[in-house]
């Protein structure tokens, strides 16, 4: 056990959401971590939780799971509270570096990139949408030399984890029944969810199971919830296994570097800080980074694995020259459309939600408005006229909802994504007393490519994050096309019977453009440029001939023995998915890859 004078330790802040949290403690006979484990897993997020659970099965191996955050609390399990979690210490409050012309309507003109900091990672703070990616996504990844990652290869791992209870899909061969991860229909559905489905049908969309190979169409959302309660990766894979003697889970443990022998290029263990002390712990078999698409590359670079010139400029000894952090893709959204209604009791209005009846309905039966995914109810895939893809392969995901930025009077969603007061007060406050909703969308395949770099070699300082949003003109054009499609969708009878009308108040910074012109919508998109927390490819997987690859198709870091990255940061290209389910699948598959290596299967 070592003390270090080099860096100030992090300060934690009080958090009302931490009340009655799930505690993870060492077995009573252990007063501290062992000096050595078979496997050390860094990060108890969506991938790390399942990975540690699988590696410790059958008591064949000892596993240390290190998590910088804490256990989830009772309130984090309530789906409707998801937006509030973005401003608690259940997230890493990352900010993208300032980029002119995007996030202009956010606080200080900066894009906010919160990532989960909890046992369960981002699955504790996300919107619980369960999507796996299209068959074409995984087959294309495999075709580029990533053996073992085709759709046929990965679908068994999705099914293995899943315990599905979905209406009309009881006999589906594409869903699991016996896994630990609960996937269910959202108990609460507003009338606007049916309006979305009916309107999509009028525009030629089929209702599909988007988690089957036939996935191009629209659907009610399949969610990682269990009887109305969030089903995080921790709740699914760790909670019932945390008393295993061979699985030690340490919360509030901040890993500062991977210990690597520079001569043999072998990962030996990790250094981490916990409760004011520094520890060096050894891994007999492997160190696995599951710290997510920002912290995993951050730790690699701090440990001497990354772009040579960049590391040298930071005074870090280079052990392996790899293009860590040089590729970054993210899904961005535009949640700022608002449609008003001439009817009542159709949307989620905050001041009408906090009633005793709704609380009782939720606590006793797990349904009612509090079981809503903060208003998000339906999903649809479309292919705009700008797509040059063959067949039914979408470039936009639509998300239907029964709330808008005005529904909570600016206290929750707008604050959660850090919309500036000058924008909210001017555009949305005037419609707080009118029922309103939005349909947002996700740009599935951005051409704009970001990256990340170290800010310094202080492990407690966040890396510099460069999204490079909307730097490719096709991204802007595709997002405008998505807005045009949404306007057509809402102009159909299923919505018009409720008097759905576009709120036409101009953004104050876009006054010089004619409302509803392409130039206006581009200005609006650049004003509210919102991440959906799906950063990928920062530790890109690829075959040896891929110059950008950081890990091989078995997730081993190139040039370093006994070190793997197993999280969503290895996904090499954009996929048609919210990344929580793919991260869990990667954890499942990664566990099998490791077990096969060490004869543990």
TrEMBL record:
GO molecular function, one term: flavin adenine dinucleotide binding
Active site: 534, 578
Ligand binding (FAD): 122, 255
Organism annotation: Danaus plexippus plexippus
Recorded coiled-coil stretches: none
Cofactor(s) needed: FAD
Domain of life: Eukaryota
Family: Belongs to the GMC oxidoreductase family.
Name of the protein in its database record: Glucose dehydrogenase
Lineage of producing organism: Eukaryota, Metazoa, Ecdysozoa, Arthropoda, Hexapoda
Domain Glucose-methanol-choline oxidoreductase N-terminal: start-end pairs: 116-139, 292-306
Keywords annotated in UniProt: FAD, Flavoprotein
SUPFAM superfamilies, per database record: FAD-linked reductases, C-terminal domain (SSF54373), FAD/NAD(P)-binding domain (SSF51905)
Pfam families (UniProt xref): GMC_oxred_C, GMC_oxred_N
